[in-house]
Amino acid sequence: MHMTAKAFSVAVAGASGYAGSEAARLIVMHPHMRLGALAAHSNAGQPVASLLPQLTGAPGVAQTFSEMDPELLAGHDAVVLGLPHGASADLATKLIELNPDLVIVDAGADFRLASASDWQKWYGGEHAGTWAYGLPELPLAAGTEHPQGAKQRDELAGQKHIAGPGCNASAVALGLAPVVAAGLLDPVGLSAVLPVGTSGAGRKAKADMIFAEVNGGAKPYSTGGAHRHLPEILQSLRKAGAPWQTSLTLTAVLVPMSRGILAVCNGRSADGTTTEDLLNCLGEAYAGEPFITVLPAGQMASTHPVIGSNMVRISAVADPASGLSTVMVAIDNLVKGTAGAVVQCLNIALGLPETEGLPRVGLAP
Fold first, then answer.
1. Cβ(94)–Cβ(27) under 8 Å?
2. Does the reported pTM lie above 0.85?
């Protein structure tokens, strides 16, 4: 096992939001990381305990949120960017100029997409560039660039700048990539419906997110091909070996739980595809992956067992009557979906064991 006495200092920019605060929670418990500056825009100067009381029991946590000062942040070994989409690129440029050796993991979307036209279409503004994509378990298509069995983690080794994946994108890509690439599902006309916890919408106060509007109901959003994670998912599926004509409709449904995503992914089965085929394919793709559990036939993925952990639970079933197959993926949107993926990528970039400091036990019930 890799052993190190060094504690890497890690700052969090955007620490008062859900992504940033969850990253801070994981970092402060990490055996080889030390939580440094907690930077915020509008909350700069405010006591950390007033917004993030969950951190007050840990030693060494900053007392107040700092300004978004590039020089302060660049003085660390690594920085996590937990900023709104479109806000990371400018700060990242300044940090790299100040400290070319700084490890930066962006929890936002600014550097996820390889296509500038996709960025402009889905997010607007100028494309800032593309960083290594931070979903280590994503299978990569074998060919001239990658050997058989390659994973996205192979592209993360030695990287200093990493784009953390989107939460919905991670769930759908991990579920569909192996079975679509293997030809078990028709890549055209795939669909995914995702019940999502309210923390996925961020911490900013919004009228449609108050308790009375959310409790006891379910509300779809970004329907009809409007969800911003669509190009990211298609990019991942194609990297895994899905053909260019792969198409997907994505429907996220806000449900009254704080955390969690259950991605219910459907596609037309290839002739003769069985439940056993699906599970064997998924099991082979993720054999040995410490954070992924492929459930046996008859067991269905659900969110309770993964809450608070970096785990992914996957189930699958083929329906011969309809000719459709379903793959279900459960993750905690704030851990494996966001901050856990960030820390997993930090581990890789800093030369630490990939599982270090990441919870593998959920909080159920």
1. no
2. yes
